[in-house]
Amino acid sequence: MTVMAADLREENRRRLRDDLRLRRVAPRSLPATVRLETTTECRLRCLHCFRQRDESGEVMDPGLYGRLARELFPHIEVVEFGALGEPLHDPHLGQRLELIDPEAGPRLDLTTSGDGLLAWVDVLVTRARRIVVSIETFDEDLYPHVRKGARLHDVLRGVEAFRCAADAVGGATRPQLVFRITLLRGNHAILPSLVARIGDAGADAIELAHGVPLEGAHEDLQITDQKMDLGVALQRGVLQGRLSGVPVHYPRLAPQTAWSADANRFRADGCLPDDAAWTRATVQPDGTVSLCCPGDRLDGVPSTPLGPGGFRAAWTSEPFQAVRRAGRAVPACGFCAHAEDPRHG
What does the pLDDT read at residue 109? Predict the structure, then answer.
């Protein structure tokens, strides 16, 4: 890391601590983590994904990305790719990764289906803090039914190549390999075996997410005939994780209906952490700045277009100041990895 980048990042940390302590409505700092929705497009059609109901997709203009990179990257800790689309399908991914300096940072968190991972291993391993691979089954016949358009063999080749490259990096900068399992009707019954397979793949952690609520609208999410109480499955999955040496993280919220009848609206079952209005942000492909990936599709979440003043002007604009001033919990989708229970968050 260059001295200048290190100094700028440390100064932002200091300002962020002050902003949180004083609860400044117009912070002097930039958030520690920024998710850039570089694309909302994906070539896959997974059973449990909202893309089944919303076929539209956008790609962030490289010029817009470049402006954001110049303003944000010297100051923030982590940049995230991937939530509403598949970042590895982004036609400008190579250009975007070039603007993340392996030495100066920030570190990259990338969430992916793993489709196409093999081609990007050498570039990602020098920039990533962690790669999160979503997977629901290791059954060769069932996998393409759940993840339509992807091949399990190709995904696992990419995963193994990334794990080997990460191990070669070693030390404090070694990127983590994390698997995310969406719990569907049936696959939670085979959760212990999924955890065991993932442990064998050399994962550093496993995250669980609830997909069960979608089954009312998608009967084909009944991916196996096996039955098991969800609570029992979770307990056995965590136990298997301990045996396999890989931590398994429960979903923070109980499963609830995720989608409303209107495919353009998201349902707020949880809330963001109390410090989210200072510590994390999302920029949509069109430049809209928000606190989370759905942006203006989730009621109660501030969003504002990126203007001539850049990210900082949007971050300190009235919609965001109003949320900080009110001191109320910011809504979040219940299946979000960052969501907390609104009763206890």
Answer: 97
